[in-house]
Amino acid sequence: MDTRQPLAGQVAVITGAGRGIGSAIARKLAALSATAVLLGRTKSALDETARAIVDAGGKTEVIPCDVTVLHQLEYAAARVDSTFGRLDILVNNAGVGGFNDPLHNLPPEEWDRILNTNLRGVYYAIRTFAPIMIRAYSGHIINISSLAGKNALPNGAAYAASKWGLNGLTYSVAEELRKHNVRASVVCPGSVDTELSPHAGKDPDKMLQPDDVAHAVAAIVTQAPQSFMSEILLRPTQKP
Hints:
Elements lengths: L10 E5 L4 H12 L3 E6 L2 H13 L3 E6 L5 H15 L4 E4 L15 H29 L2 E6 L12 H21 L4 E8 L20 H12 L9 E4 L6
Parallel strand pairs: 1-2, 1-4, 2-3, 4-5, 5-6, 6-7
């Protein structure tokens, strides 16, 4: 492996790649010489990430896609397979928040919005993309969770439930896919300075940044093949 280009020739799919953490992860993987395939609902945001990658000399492709719609992910997976014939990295980053209501006041449609994106969307992505990795007997799936999947989150119970569920899903999928030489990992950051997280009373200069999460993902996908980091808990050095 060329240490200057550790992901040369590899293909990485990143969901929610138009902004925030997803954009940072896509740019980081492209900087490590992977071809970054950008998935997300808003094409203009994906195009902005793509321009940043191309301007830095990287390779990328944009596929507008809603992770809550199975046939759209099936199309994306078929396109990746037909274009590249491989998939080395899948980063399930697409997610939505919900931090304003106690559960007994939460409208059912808000519950559905959060769970469908944060949990069902990951299931759909693994269902559609994992077969490409299984066929190649190689690959890495990284699910972006949250410390809310480890701790209580008052007024964010649905979000916490989606992330607790995502953690359990990841641990279980990791065991299912080990026999296929496909590694599955979860990254659980604390509050990151993006549009998603609640920031009331927090110092953004002390909060985690999207690039911090991207760095953790890069560490996972460049790990030696005989081992893998199954879980990373990411916290700010100083409490914000």
